[in-house]
Amino acid sequence: MISDTYKTIKDISGGIYKEKGSRFIATAYPVSDTDEIKNILDNVRKELHDARHHCYAYMLGHQKDTWRMNDDGEPSGTAGRPILGQINSFDITNVLIVVSRYFGGTLLGVSGLINAYKTAANDSLNNAVIIERTVKEYFQIFFTYDSMNDVMKVLKEEHVDQSDQSFDINCRINISFRESLHEKILGRLDRIEGLKYEYLGKH
Question: Where does CATH 3.30.230.30 sit in the chain?
Answer without folding.
Answer: 5-133
